[in-house]
Write a structure and sequence with these properties.
There is one protein chain. By secondary structure, this protein is α+β, with helices and mostly antiparallel strands. The protein has one domain. The strands form two sheets. A four-stranded antiparallel β-sheet has the order 2-3-4-6. Strand 3 and strand 4 form a beta hairpin. The longest helix has 14 residues.
């Protein structure tokens, strides 16, 4: 059986990992994302080149008494794929993969929140679509020419 590997959809997606959150920005549609809960560990494993089978095994070993892990993790990875944050990859040559440290409070579901409030700014081409004042001010769009003015 072939293992599934994924990678971050770079250069279209950039991200930063913090202690309690991963922020990912997609330049495909101008959305940005907050990844929290177990999503942080899943993201780290994906970034390190872990296969889907490895991710599932690592979580099942860390949280052996949580029967719903498989579906939750697969669903989260599918959500990352739907948003084009990750893409399928060839087999990885991962070296040392991160180890999951079980949370004493138990497994925390992965969370992916989508924000679209900055799409116009994130999709603005800073070289070609700026006014004389510079970025981030877009160039003024000329008013449409009416049919009467063209005669």
């Amino acid at each position: 059986m072939k293992e599934n590997f994924y990678r971050v959809n770079t250069p279209a997606v950039v991200y930063e990992t913090f202690a309690d959150e991963v922020i990912a920005v997609s330049f495909l549609d101008g959305s940005y994302y907050s990844i929290r809960g177990a999503g942080i560990e899943i993201w780290k494993l994906l970034c390190a080149g872990a296969s889907m089978a490895h991710i599932l095994t690592a979580f099942q070993e860390a949280y052996p008494n949580d029967p719903g892990l498989h579906d939750v993790i697969v669903g989260f990875v599918e959500e990352l794929l739907r948003h084009s944050l990750i893409v399928a990859a060839e087999e990885s040559v991962a070296s040392a993969l991160p180890v999951i440290s079980p949370d004493l409070a138990g497994f925390t579901r992965p969370i992916l929140e989508t924000y679209t409030d900055m799409q116009d700014l994130l999709l603005l081409d800073p070289i070609h679509e700026v006014g004389e004042d510079g970025w981030p001010k877009p160039a003024a769009v000329p008013p449409p020419v009416s049919a009467d003015a063209r005669r």
